[in-house]
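stage 2 :: seqdesign
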């Protein structure tokens, strides 16, 4: 079967490029080439090189794993990869598109080993960094460094050799101090030059209307088999540096293959969204006094850059997130099935775009690699000009159907990834009581509803609803006793939600910060979901966390206003042994009329996993 087509895992450490194959490739093994990936990455698709040439020009290369060398057209491995279409990344594991012997070994551009690559190499102007020339072709490389994003960013930010040498495996092996100093400075200058070039490229694209959108990714930290922490992935400048290199490679390859094969090239289309999709974004921006123009991607990008609250950086993040929601999903297509004026990529502000840079995990990139090789291969003049370049390519109708299949598999993979993240977020909070500090968080209102609002929780990258009206038509009002459930009305206004009761009125505006409690609701039979409960009308800060922690629980609070947030942390417990006296506690509390509404909420919280402490009672 498939395994018979491939080398065995036992031989990967001794594998070396074959001499005839080396002769047909451009040799780049003596050039400083580096990969920059997430920590622990095994399937290294791409590597980058940059250097100044003797004539002053800059040469920048993007080198991509040559998967097609090991996966012949219509082989069993190729057919299986075509069926899978993509690698699926879940929170705690991945399901590879290609066998591990290829994805993690022979194709992966690991450090200090020789590998086959497909390269795009640009010659750039020494000051403007505009492209003067471009070369495409097969290469053989030997990556000098396998860096993670964090280490690369630290070097750019100025960390010393002493701080970094133990983190970078290739440097830690060098014993000669002079050689080590020279190597480290060479690496630092290379990263600085790369940052300079890509910043200029990115700026040029943004001038044409490229969008810098926001999509919060969640990072799960595991210790052995247990989940230790959940947090948003940190955004580093080096992420954009690497991304810009990949965007440029994809763009230039798209130009090449569509020029050579205008009727059956695989490109990626991102159409402009409908104007109605921006209604929520425009409304939120107006609540802060800003106008969002959405007639073009350039207008939208300029508007988003202007919408900055110096006192609250989360505002711009949420507005960019709302812009992301408005977008139409990008898809693959065959150029013979779509008119050329519709090939544009709206989000990247490019007239042509494809995926070339990740053939280990995307089958679309394998197709593009074959198209590129065919595009740069000349017809054989000695054979009467016969063109055999298309023998490993799909015709338009075949490619159109395959693009539909790949798009469906991509959507399924993205859905699986989202559901996996939701599962592990749920598991993280499964056994945590509401009075656990990890469950008390700050949330930001970003959308309004008739019975509450939607919040974004920066600490965990979560979003969800907060209800101000119960099924019994009681509303949550912030009165002299704190937040209590009582009779009233919730009204959604243009930029706020009002809670109106006989005792007074509360109002929650877009982008207000509120204090929330996160808990799990549901059962094994019907499934669990995270619920978000309003604990206090106002932001939750580290100062407040410290105050609550240091507060004396025995202090007499008879004459103080009832604070629901403090009472929740002091009165709630997840000890099931206390649940037997719930009825007696209910009777005692209900005798105090002014506290009855508070207790009904406490009773609701009990069914979410918390109970009242046995030795505590409320008195009027």
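stage 2 :: out
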């Amino acid at each position: 079967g498939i395994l018979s087509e491939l080398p065995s895992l036992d031989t990967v450490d001794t594998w070396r490029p074959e001499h005839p194959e080396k002769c047909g490739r451009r040799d780049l093994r003596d050039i400083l080439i580096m990969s920059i990936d997430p920590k622990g990455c095994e399937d290294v698709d791409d590597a980058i090189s940059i250097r100044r040439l003797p004539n002053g020009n800059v040469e920048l290369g993007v080198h991509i794993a040559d998967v097609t060398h090991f996966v012949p057209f219509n082989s069993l491995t190729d057919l299986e990869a075509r069926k899978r279409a993509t690698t699926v990344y879940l929170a705690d594991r991945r399901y590879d598109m290609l066998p591990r012997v290829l994805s993690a070994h022979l194709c992966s551009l690991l450090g200090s080993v020789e590998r086959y690559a497909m390269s795009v190499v640009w010659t750039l102007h020494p000051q403007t960094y505009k492209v003067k020339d471009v070369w495409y072709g097969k290469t053989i490389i030997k990556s000098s460094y396998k860096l993670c994003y964090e280490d690369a960013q630290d070097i750019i930010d100025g960390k010393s050799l002493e701080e970094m040498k133990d983190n970078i495996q290739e440097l830690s092996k060098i014993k000669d101090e002079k050689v080590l100093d020279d190597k480290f400075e060479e690496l630092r200058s290379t990263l600085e030059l790369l940052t300079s070039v890509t910043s200029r490229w990115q700026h040029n694209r943004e001038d044409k209307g490229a969008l810098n959108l926001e999509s919060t990714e969640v990072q799960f930290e595991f210790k052995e088999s247990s989940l230790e922490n959940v947090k948003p992935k940190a955004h580093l400048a080096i992420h954009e540096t690497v991304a810009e290199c990949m965007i440029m490679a994809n763009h230039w390859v798209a130009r090449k293959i569509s020029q050579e094969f205008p009727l059956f090239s695989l490109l990626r289309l991102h159409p402009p969204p409908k104007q109605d999709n921006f209604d929520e974004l425009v409304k939120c921006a107006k609540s802060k006094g800003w106008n969002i123009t959405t007639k073009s991607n350039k207008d939208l990008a300029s508007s988003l850059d202007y919408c900055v609250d110096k006192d609250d950086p989360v505002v711009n993040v949420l507005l960019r997130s709302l812009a992301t929601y408005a977008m139409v999903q990008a898809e693959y297509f065959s150029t013979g099935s779509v008119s050329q004026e519709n090939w544009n990529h709206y989000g990247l502000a490019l007239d042509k775009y494809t995926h070339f840079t990740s053939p280990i995990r995307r089958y679309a990139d394998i197709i593009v690699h074959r198209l590129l090789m065919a595009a740069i291969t000349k017809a054989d003049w000695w054979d009467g000009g016969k063109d055999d370049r298309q023998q490993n390519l799909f015709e338009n109708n075949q490619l159109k159907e395959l693009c539909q299949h790949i798009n469906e598999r991509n959507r399924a993979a993205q859905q699986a990834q989202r559901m996996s993240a939701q599962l592990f977020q749920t598991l993280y909070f499964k056994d945590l009581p509401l009075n656990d500090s990890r469950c008390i968080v700050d949330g930001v209102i970003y959308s309004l509803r008739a019975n509450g609002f939607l919040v974004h929780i920066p600490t965990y990258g979560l979003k969800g609803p907060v209800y101000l009206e119960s099924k019994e038509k009681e509303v949550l009002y912030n009165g002299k006793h704190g937040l209590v459930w009582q009779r009233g009305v919730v009204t959604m206004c243009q930029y706020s939600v009002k809670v109106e009761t006989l005792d007074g009125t509360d109002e929650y505006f877009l982008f207000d910060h509120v204090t929330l409690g996160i808990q799990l609701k549901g059962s094994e039979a019907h499934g669990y979901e995270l619920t978000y409960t309003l604990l206090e009308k106002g932001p939750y800060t580290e100062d407040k966390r410290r105050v609550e922690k240091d507060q004396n629980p025995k202090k007499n609070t008879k004459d103080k206003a009832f604070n629901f947030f403090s009472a929740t942390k002091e009165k709630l417990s997840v000890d099931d042994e206390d649940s037997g006296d719930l009825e007696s506690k209910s009777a005692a509390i209900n005798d105090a009329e002014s506290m009855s509404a508070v207790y009904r909420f406490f009773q609701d919280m009990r069914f979410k996993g918390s109970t009242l402490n046995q030795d505590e009672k409320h008195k009027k």
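stage 3 :: structure notes
- The longest strand covers residues 131-142.
- Residues 396-429 form the longest helix (34 residues).
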